[in-house]
Specification:
- It is a multi-pass membrane protein.
- Belongs to the major facilitator superfamily. Proton-dependent oligopeptide transporter (POT/PTR) (TC 2.A.17) family.
- Keywords: Membrane, Transmembrane, Transmembrane helix.
- It is found in: Membrane.
- By secondary structure, the chain is mainly α.
- It is 62% helix and 3% strand.
- It contains 17 helices and six strands.
- Strands 1-2 form a two-stranded antiparallel ribbon. A two-stranded parallel ribbon has the order 3-6.
- Helix 13 (431-462) packs antiparallel against helix 16 (561-585).
- The longest helix has 37 residues, at 94-130.
- It starts with 38 loop residues before the first helix and ends in a 6-residue tail after the last helix.
- Residues 1-20 and 591-602 have low confidence and may be disordered.
Length: 602
């Protein structure tokens, strides 16, 4: 029976005969009693590690722009781009962590190594903020001097130290990110009847841990920075990461592990080379024996069950095309650079089929990255006081997190039952439907942001605030920003949670960390694209000779942030149409073991 359409039900999880995916202990030995390991207790230790990592990540993303601007005396645009690059590297290079985990180290040891690197980077940043010699002189650098660029510039070696510490932190995050969600999901027995339901809840709770870390970054860390200084703020992040590392290692006896399957990049290269070598061979030639696969229940790929053959990407099937003489001489196994198994070929096909889905979430990451910097600039011109409550500008990004927290908390009580009645899907909506819904909310968020920014700028012009872009306007509340913040928060919940679940379930067994890295790479590309878009817009819209300011002028009241938001809305709409096309064509994966046991595959 053919695989299901992307808009139908996902296939069930593999049953007890899933060969090649048996969990092992830290020594690589089969676990005698699974009931004493894994499950929700083990997942809690992993949640703690992710919470601290996200706290550090968002704490740096919101504070480092201000630190570079106010302490290192870098221009605001340069500071924002440096932080965007940090965010981009920490996500785009996640494929390195996924590769090491799937190929050699396993997820546990990859997390252990890179989380230690992360901690060292945070300690180095704390030292940077603590030692006066590592920052430029602050003498005579008041608000006016800062705006005029008259403060003492940072020495090249001071910036080199800061960038080194920042990028050590970025690479630490890159190694952790693709492994933590997959390692947490590994703690659940995929042979149990309720596996799919538990996996669904796990990814929602995992993103809840991400959200709690972000809330702590946007509130507690900002408060500490304002009242105790930069060294205390960065030191808090290092302390949280150190504590979470200790808790992660304490949980070691409880964890279930997956055996690394060898280099996934090597297996991909072998398929491509073998297919190229047999590019002229025909499936109906006289020497055609069949598509090669090893005998028995287990596949030739360590740590992976067999994968059934599919008919798409037929040119890759040439890699498994067995001709007379391929196994001549009584060879126990063929040269994998000349003949690959069907399972190995299908791994490459799955990676290719998955690629368009995370690619369509890059635009959401662009919007999220722009909001981190542009919305803060908007908030500086608005009144952040409500009655006796005065919220610092750098705390404003906490509101998307609160929206995420609320949606996740109510998801199973409100959205899922309502959507179940409308779609008939047991989980309310399929993974790709939830990704698409998130993209719709992201369009609504930037559309509203464009409308409000047009009103905000007009208000500034009418009330004489054109040149006072760092002075809050008492008559215009910053809480109008909550609408765009909450909409983008809802977009994150639906899109990114579903994407992580989708990639884990659909990726080959021995490439799940690489599959999870797809999401992080998409996020990193979004950060780089945001920087590139800002540079392109600035160059295209600024004309110094004609006296025309850039859309992204440092004085937000002179610039046209509303035009940029509308540009993002148009690009996001085009991206949504592409995603709908991709989702309708996608076929959920059907595993060979489910077919062999007669499970209904829809």
């Amino acid at each position: 029976m053919a695989p299901a359409s992307a808009m139908e039900l996902e296939p069930p999880p593999p049953p007890a005969s899933a060969a090649g995916t048996t969990p092992v202990n830290i020594r690589g030995e089969p676990i005698a009693d699974l009931s004493r390991t894994g499950g929700w207790v083990a997942a809690l230790f992993i949640f703690g590690n992710e919470m601290a990592e996200r706290m550090a990540y968002f704490g740096l993303s919101v504070n480092m722009v201000v630190f570079m601007f106010k302490v290192m005396h870098r221009p605001f645009t340069s500071s924002a781009n440096a932080v965007n690059n940090f965010l981009g590297i920490s996500q785009a290079s996640s494929v390195l962590g996924g590769f090491l985990a799937d190929a050699y180290l396993g997820r546990y040891w990859t997390i252990a190594i890179f989380t230690t690197m992360y901690l060292l980077g945070l300690v180095a940043l704390t030292v940077s903020a603590s030692v006066p010699a590592l920052v430029p002189s602050q003498e005579g650098c008041d608000k006016l001097a800062m705006l005029l660029g008259a403060c003492a510039p940072a020495e090249p070696w001071q910036m080199a130290y800061l960038h080194t510490a920042l990028y050590v932190t970025a690479f630490g995050a890159a190694g952790i990110r693709p492994c933590v969600s997959s390692f947490g999901a590994d703690q659940f027995d995929e042979r149990s009847p309720g596996y799919k339901r538990r996996l669904d809840r796990f990814f929602n709770l995992f993103y809840l841990a991400v959200t709690l870390g972000a809330i702590a970054a946007f509130t507690a860390v900002v408060y500490i920075q304002m009242h105790r200084g930069w060294a205390a703020a960065f030191g808090t992040l290092a302390l949280a990461m150190g504590t979470s590392n200790a808790l992660f290692f304490v949980g070691t006896p409880l964890y279930r592990h997956r055996v690394p399957g060898g280099s996934p990049l090597t297996r991909v290269a072998q398929v491509l080379v073998a297919a190229f070598r047999k590019r002229h061979a025909a499936f109906d030639s006289g020497g055609f024996v069949g598509l090669y696969e090893v005998a028995g229940a287990k596949s030739a790929v360590r740590g992976s069950a067999k994968i059934d053959h599919t008919d798409d990407f037929r040119w890759l099937d040439k890699a498994a095309l067995q001709l007379e003489g391929d196994l001549a001489g009584g060879e126990a196994a063929p040269d994998p650079w000349r003949l690959c198994t069907v399972t190995q070929v299908e791994e490459v096909k799955i990676l290719l089929r998955l690629l368009p889905v995370p690619a369509c979430t890059v635009m959401l990451s662009v919007v999220l990255t722009e909001f981190l910097t542009l919305s803060v600039q908007q908030a500086y011109t608005l009144n952040t006081r409500v009655a006796a409550l005065h919220l610092p500008v750098t705390c404003m990004p906490v509101f998307p997190c609160l929206a995420i927290f609320l949606v996740l908390a109510l998801y199973y009580q409100t959205f899922a039952p309502l959507a179940r009645r409308l779609t008939g899907h047991p989980h309310g909506a399929s993974q790709l439907q939830r990704v698409g819904l998130g993209l719709v909310f992201s369009i609504l968020s930037v559309a509203w942001a464009g409308l409000f920014e047009r009103y905000r700028r007009g208000y500034a012009v009418r009330h004489g605030y054109l040149a006072l872009f760092l002075s809050p306007m008492p008559g215009l509340s910053a809480y109008w920003l909550l609408i765009q913040y909450c909409l983008i928060g809802v977009a994150e919940v639906f899109c990114l949670v579903a994407l992580l679940e989708f990639l884990y379930q659909e990726a080959p067994d021995a490439m799940r960390s690489v599959g999870s890295a797809y999401a992080a790479v998409a996020g990193g590309l979004g950060c780089f694209m945001a920087s590139a878009l800002n540079t392109a817009v600035d160059a295209a819209t600024r004309d110094d000779r004609a006296g025309r300011p850039s859309w992204l002028a440092q004085n937000i009241n002179v610039g046209r942030f509303d035009y940029l938001y509308w540009l993002l809305a148009v690009l996001s709409t085009i991206n949504l149409l592409v995603f709908i096309y991709v989702a309708k064509r996608y076929k959920y994966r059907v595993r060979i073991d489910a077919q062999d046991t007669g499970v209904n595959k829809h």
